[in-house]
Amino acid sequence: MLLVAYLGTAAWHQIKPLPEGLNVAGPWRPAAAVRFHADSTWLDAEGRQHNERKIFDAAFDMIERAESLVVSDFFLVNRFAGKAGDGYRPLSDELVNAMTTERRTHDTLKAVLLTDPFNDLYDGVQQPLFAELEQAGVDVIETELRRLRDPNPLWSSAWRICCQWFGNGHRGGWLPNPVGEGKVTLRTYLTMFNFKANHRKTLVVDGERGPEALVTSANPHDASSRHDNIAIAFDGPAVSDLLATERAVVHFSTGREPDWPALSLDSPRSLVAEVRILTEAAIRDAALAMIDSTGAGDSLDLLMFYLSHREIIESMIDAHERGAAIRVLLDPNEDAFGRKKNGIPNRQVAWELHEAGIPVRWCNTRGEQCHGKMLVVRPKTGLDRVLGGSANFTRRNLDNFNLETNVELRMDPDTEAMQAIVGFFDERWSNTPDRIHSLPYDRYADHSRLRYWQYRIMEATGLSTF
Hints:
21 strands; 2 domains; Endonuclease, Chain A
């Protein structure tokens, strides 16, 4: 009976219906303003590391312009593993300060932070940042992850049967905190091994410039503040589409409809680009469509923190065989918040792409991560396409397990935003004498068949953190 219950639980939570409002492919919408922002880390000719941070400066400026609404959804908002003041930036505190200041400035402002329960270790520790937000009148909503499908069914099936009913507690436990000081309960670890999250990174405000939004790969997280990341900000009707996807998270997490004010959306005076919102598996479908559309004379550039999804990899190899010019820039999967990693899955996927003849380079990391997620397609004729946001190209991120949000753009190659995106990738691929962003494939090449098949098993089963 236990075996039947275990297998039935595993099967159901792989295929069960998603909460309404997830896996969204929004319509194409006109935008009068599109801006590209990036956080960059590089080495100069003498080996000194430099940082340039623009994403959260832009995000905090947006919050400062807000008058009626701020809705933020960020995966990591905490001080865990942080070293602010030692080359790091206290981004979590800055986000809290920005939202609380604006809430106190505008009495009628609706301000909300949606986030992942990892930030209080699944109710295993107190999170003072959330208490500070709530005292200022900012709603803090932790995502109800049990409503999502299970990417790690071998463990999650047992957890749902035996352990999910016990809750958690703030009084500490007997196990070491995995990301900080103090002790946590066994229940924290048992929940963490489900390996799923609200991984979104979005911001919507309505204020002096009207509705505007930002979709990014960056977390307002102290220990992540040195990472390379990308962000796309835009206006127009797609802002309303993005807000609808966040309403869905509030609804299935709390059971109530948020009482947010309606956005005042005027028709764009001029068209700079077309924008659409994509969440969950719709991101995968859009990425495959972009890759499959390429052939001889077209170019495809991919910047990715984690690349492991089999359909994406096979589609890229097919595009290369059709004659598309492909460049792949990957994080070497070397470091994670002071801990060394073994290079899985990127080094194994890079080997596969390299063997197929696709050029691969590595981000030149020194403790930080190359955390951006962006696909750029430039056809021989027609509009350029860009896909960027929170989603890594992995099974967990693209197959309706995690919550993810990306934005897809199509625009003329001569637009300012498109030129900025192309210049951003070109600089990282080619380097300059004083800005060494990337290294050749041989630097982190790993041709171990054992680790290759380890990656394949981890990707297929969900027994992994990627």
